[in-house]
Every structure is written in C-alpha cells, then in structure tokens.
Amino acid sequence: MATTGIRAIEGTRDYFGNDGNRFDKIETFAADLFSRYGYARIRTPVFERSELFARSIGAATDIVEKEMYTFTPGSDTITLRPENTAGVVRAYLQHSMEKQGGLTKLWYAGPMFRRERPQKGRQRQFHQIGIEAIGSSDPLLDAEVVSVGMRFYEFVGIGNVGLRLNSIGCQKPECRPLFRQLLRDAIRPNLDKYCKTCQNRFERNVLRIIDCKNPECQKLSATLPKSYDSLCPECADHFERTKEGVSALGGEYTIDHTLVRGLDYYTKTVFEYTHDALGAQNAIGGGGRYDGLVEELGGKPTPAIGFALGIERMLIAMEAVGACACGYPLQVYGVSLGDSARRAMAGLIARLREAGISADMDYEGRSMKSQMRAANRREAMCCLILGENELAEGKISVKDMLDDGGQEVVDIFDCLDAVRKILPRI
C-alpha cells in the first residue's frame, strides 16, 4: 500500500472505484424512489446549535454525552450533526412548512458525525439516507414508511433484509412511564449482575437496558416485561393497525420487544432493517415515530415518522450479495492510433455521449495493446478502433467485448447504429 505524509483521519474513508460508483448509484436510486412516494429533497447544514441535539436526542443518551463533535468558535456552541431528523424538524419549524397545509414529506442524504470507536460498518464520519413524514398520525403512514425502506433495499439489489418491529408507547402516565417503572422494579433485584453500562442507564434511560448486546445482560433481560404488553389502548390500537398495514403492503416482519431505538424522541412505532452480512451488529437502517419532537423544539403538537438508512452498512451488504448497483457501466471505449485518428475519435466519443451512451477514450497516446488492456480493465462493452488508414477510408472497427471479441468494420458515420446493436443486450 502506498504511503503519504498526510492520511485520512481514523474513522473516515475515501470512496472511489466500485464503492464510489455504488455510493453515487444509491443516491440516484433514492432520488428516483422517494419522489415516487411524494418526498421532496431537503439539504440542511452539517452543523447546528448543540442545544438542538440535547433537546431532541436526549441529554442522557450516549450520543449527546460521549459521541458528539462539539465546538465553541464564538458565542455559539455548535455540533456536527450526529443524525438529521432534528435538523429537518428545525428547518420545518424555521420555514413554517406547516402553513403549506397537509402532510410534509422530505428526504435527505449526507454525512453524519459521531466520535465513537471505528469498526465494521461504523465510522466517525458516516453517511445516511432518510425520509421524514411530518403531519399525520395515521398508522397507514407508518406502514408506508416501513415499506419504502424495504423497497429501497430491493432497488439497490440487497435481498434477505429482515424487518424488526415494535411499539414503545407514548408519554401518557399509563403507557411508557408505567412501563419504565415496571422495568425498574423487575431489574432492581438483579441490577448488580448487569454490565456497568446498564447500571448507569438504570435511572436515566432504563429502556436501553433491554437492547444491551452483552450476552449476560440479554439472559437477565429475557423475562423482563414487554413494551407491547404495557401499551395504553390508543397505542395498542395504533400498533395493531400498523402491523396490518405493513402486511397489506407485502412486508414480512418479526415483533422484537428488545427493540427500543437509542434516541429519546421516539414514540409508538419503532423498526429496524437487518442483514446477516453485518454480523452481530446487523442493523443497516431503522427509524420510528416521533410525535413529540416538533412540540419539543417549539412547534405545535405534530405527529411525524421517518427512517435513516446507513450507506456504509448498505455497501457491506451490497458487496456480500454481489449487488450490481455499481454505477453506470462504461459502454464504449475509443481506441485510436495517430493524431488525426485521435481527434476524430474525440468527436465520435462526444456524439456517443450526446446520444446518452457512456463513453471514454485514451488520452495518453498509448499503444493499441495498452489501450485494449485499458478497455478490458474498464469493463467496456464495446470498443471503437480507429487508425489513420481507416480514417482515410471513412471506416471504423466496432469490437463487441461481450461476444468473444466479435468485430465488424463499418462506415464511420454508421458507428452509432453499430454500437446500439451491441448495447440493447444489457
């Protein structure tokens, strides 16, 4: 591996080649699919005032306490965004989007930042694609949002994605607050047997004990009360109708009482997408309903739901299943010998690009053998081959790189039609 004096910071990475192409294709697919469901793109700043995340995510969460990149460049304390739902809701309120009437549907894509230990699928600068639907409490919307995520994974070629579903209730005294107390009562006799992290969470964020990945904690938690057994009538009905909606849209799911998500703003429906390619930490995306967040940030009570899909984790899954969403393939490579032939080839390549065909050529004056190797390396579907003699005769060779090297000589003005005869097979 080549070395340089200055290297990328630990927990960040460069994207190029197949991963770079996959990255681009993922965002292209997102723009296509989400627009079909009525979502419009929003771009928010990568840094916000720190209080936005403390109020929305929760001051007692690991993200706010340990993982945020926070700076005080002047009178403001700012933080690189660790997630983007809070920023989208801030923009929703700041620009009075609710005055447009009806449901507001937004999608985003971009980098997020968390200061945690880098590992497989977990970076300090990572990237997410997400959607936020603000303004409706309809369980059918929950079902739609869940199904959009499943459809997106199909879009990018990832199969065997699992769906975990749960409800963590609302803030009514007889719902989640009661469940929290039931948990504390059940955990307290064995609290000293839980890991230190769980012990620290006992008073501040007891729900997170349920989804602890420590095997000993999981054994202790196996018999704890289940959130969906302690839902108020409204939340129980909402969850049943959400499940019915997911099934009606063709989704298969597993009810998982350990799923609580890590952010304080979640209410009612929570869900995660999983894939075995990620190993034990197999979540590749997730989300849920956050009916209290708009009000928490200064707006009127407004129901909302959304998800975020991790691109880094998506890339791992795509690599594991051989997903072909690796960027648009190079369809034509121009091989030319001689100055006049190279100038003519440049004009032909421009014509192909204008016709919607991806094309490239040699710009280094290499030998024909070296240019053909470059075409193979670029996995070109066909080659145009032009020398000075062929140019003088108004001819050009069109080599089919997909059919054992079949090749024909055509009039130079007919090369576009000859190329198109090869490409429709793709």
Tell me the fraction of residues in β-strands, as a range. 15-25%
The beta-strand count equals 16
Distance between the termini: 35 Å
The overall pLDDT, averaged over residues, is 89
Physical arrangement of strands within the biggest beta sheet: 1-5-6-11-10-9-7-8
Describe the sheet with the most strands: 8 strands, mixed
Which bin fits the share of residues in helices? 25-40%
Low-confidence stretches: none
Q: What is the overall silhouette? A: elongated
> Which structural category fits the helices and strands?
alpha+beta
Rg calc: 27 Å
User: How many DSSP helices?
Assistant: 16
Molecular structure report:
This protein has 426 residues and is of the alpha+beta class. Helix content is 38%, strand content 20%. An eight-stranded mixed beta sheet has the order 1-5-6-11-10-9-7-8, sandwiched between helices. Strands 13-12-14-15-16 form a five-stranded mixed beta sheet, with helices on both faces. Strands 2-4-3 form a three-stranded antiparallel beta sheet. A hairpin with a 6-residue loop joins strand 15 and strand 16. The longest helix is centred in the first third of the chain and has 20 residues. It starts with 16 loop residues before the first helix and ends with a helix.
